Amino acid sequence: MTADEREQEPGSSPTSEDAAEGTEPLRVLVAEDEALIRLDLTEMLQEEGLDVVAEVSDGATAVRLARELRPDLAILDVKMPVMDGIQAAEQITSERLSAVLILTAFSQRELIERAREAGAMAYLVKPFQKHDLLPAIEVAAGRFQDLRGLEAQVGTLTDRLEARKHVERAKGLLQEREGLSENEAFRWLQRTAMERRLSMRTLAEQVIERLDAGESP
């Protein structure tokens, strides 16, 4: 690690305002190879009450620390040694480690589309002022939360469909092998799941396995 590169462990104390409100400040990883810009950016973030959990000068270290620290946001400069910001953004977003905000010079605007394709949620053109920073952070963090919420909904829907398939299969086996009606089979599953403190899906899987093995449910 270079002399002008600093890493901080997670869990820094929240600001007094955050503590009063009972909420943790946004945890941010900063990756910028120009030391002065990195310092200015960190100061801006801290002045706004954000928790800078790491400052690094190359994309590879940014990815490594994003995996270790799981920040809420990674701010990545496009041009960095070892691994550039776009490559780092692609890895961070593909692993859903954090939201990503890309820093790009005005002359690099053609790289914005590449950054979007890599999964960056927002970008900021250098040089920028403090009043430009927070709106970009809010956009990036908001889009990341929307993405995670959408993935959770899809996962929940998939789980429900899988659970329904198992319950229907177990219910059919109970009707066929235990001589129960459809309503009786379903009520038995509900009651037994409650008694055994199992989810309907888990019980259904057990019933299917036992009945297929010729055992009692």
UniProtKB/TrEMBL annotation:
Pfam families: ANTAR, Response_reg. Gene3D superfamilies: 3.40.50.2300, Winged helix-like DNA-binding domain superfamily/Winged helix DNA-binding domain. GO terms for molecular function: RNA binding. InterPro entries: ANTAR, CheY-like_superfamily, Sig_transdc_resp-reg_antiterm, Sig_transdc_resp-reg_receiver, WH-like_DNA-bd_sf. GO terms for biological process: phosphorelay signal transduction system. The keyword 4Fe-4S does not apply. Residues 27-141 form the Response regulatory domain. Keywords: Phosphoprotein. The keyword Phosphoprotein applies. Residues 1-24 are annotated as: Disordered. Residues 147-208 form the ANTAR domain. SMART domains: ANTAR (SM01012), REC (SM00448). The modification 4-aspartylphosphate is found at residue 77. It comes from the Bacteria. This is Response regulator.
